[in-house]
Amino acid sequence: MTLLSYSNSQKVLFVDDEVLLMEGIKRQLRKGFDITVAEGGEAALIILAKEGPFAVVIADYNMPGMDGIAFLNEVYQRFPQTILVMLTGRAELNIAVNAFNNAHITRFLNKPCSREVLKETLTEGLEQYRLRVSEKLLQAQLQQANQQLNQLNSQLESLVEQKTHALQFQYHYVANMAQMTSSTAIIQALVRAVSQLTDLYDISLWLSPHLDGQFSCYYPNDSGLPSFSAKACVDGVIAKLIHDKQVVQRNVLIAPVLNAFEAVLFLGLPFMSVPLQSKQGVLGLLNISGDKAVLESDVLEALIGMADITATALQSRWHREASDDAQDAIINALAKLSEYRDPETGLHLLRLKIYSELICRILSDTDKYRDIVTPEFTEDLVRSSPLHDIGKVGIPDAILKKPGRLTPDEFEIMKTHAQIGGDTLRSVYEQYPSQSFIKCGMDVAYGHHEKWNGEGYPLGLKGEAIPLVARILSLVDVYDAITTRRVYKSPFTREQAKNIIIQGNGSHFDPDIVSAFLTNEDEFYKIAEKYADVVESEDYFHAELYTSSTDSEVSSS
Prior knowledge:
With 557 residues, the protein is α/β, with parallel strands linked by helices.
């Protein structure tokens, strides 16, 4: 089978020890996909040796003998282009992280899985497989073009150079897509590459992320151009493009006539419109304006190829961004567990995120922290800040929810929540050290009650021995506590809150963090007002954490 044939493969392998389940899945999806089933990992490897490669392999996690992670890792070693999906009835964080790191999966599905989700997963997987194989095909074509370049005579040298340049440009673009970390970066890369390739710079990009026929202008993002529905395009050039999925180009002989609506979709003299399409339909329109007669065939082919690659990359990135959102939701859900058992405030976690991001932004503008407080540092702190009190799930309800003053012994038990939370996240981080946000969450859980002067807990760390993320969280956590309304107290006034932070400068708090706070105290105050809680029900109060003295307000939040 040729590489091109592989790219069009529709072969799917389902691996599970539940034979009836697999046969049911095969019957449900047999019309749209070429499905093979195998009972267990060992049997599946035999099938792969005889009939592989498969475009998509879906395996259950919990199988006797070779489990799903070991099996999918073996598939990856033999067929690295194959799209791997894990199917399991155990929704556990450790399994998910282990599968992503050690089995190289692209998606994690929970049992029971609906027919619609399976169909969507297979459709996307086949498209991703096509992209991977197409990249190898482009590499082979590039090598072939270079060989031809050495064989052709001087009369053909210019033509081959042009073809090779377009092919190289397209290949480097495909490789660059793998480095893109956001859909916005993909869009910017496409516009930049199209400008370089065509020498035309008036470009607009219209996308329909949900493939529902509703298109909005994603570039330029400040264009003010209206959204439109494909259903409203019943005739005209754009309607033909959407329905026929063909490139429309103006040339010297035939100039497509645009109606008034279609003309608005271009930034200047319309030159070309290229569809970004997937198997589900057109997800975007790339509209190019400019006074140019025609594009060379090699450039046009490269442009169309780039549009196809971009469509696949965007779909993959949109799916990844949705997955990241889901991961953040899991983090927040874990954090909510501790809040549920110790219900302080409804918007507490959100405010901590916003305060932390603000402190990071201020520090990143200083010479001392510019190379430390990077965008990655900030993202990890913002994502993991909700986990700071996760250790409270290990505190008995009799202490955690005690409405009166804690005894000294009870307070010592309460203080162990920092150690419990840190130890819990350390155990996860030791298994998955590549997950930087887990390391950040561990540092925050351990250190958010440490003090700059070494009198905090649980480790009594001092000064810069306390991780920077914990020093930041320590200040914003105290600030949130003293500016938040409770059933037992009103929020402190703006000046009172500011003075408490100042009093803790160099004793409780890192002076650099205090300086960052004071520099933008007005912005902190606005955030506190905007996201203030409305207390509607009884709130539990730990008297040990709040006493009448100002010093205790700072030291025990």
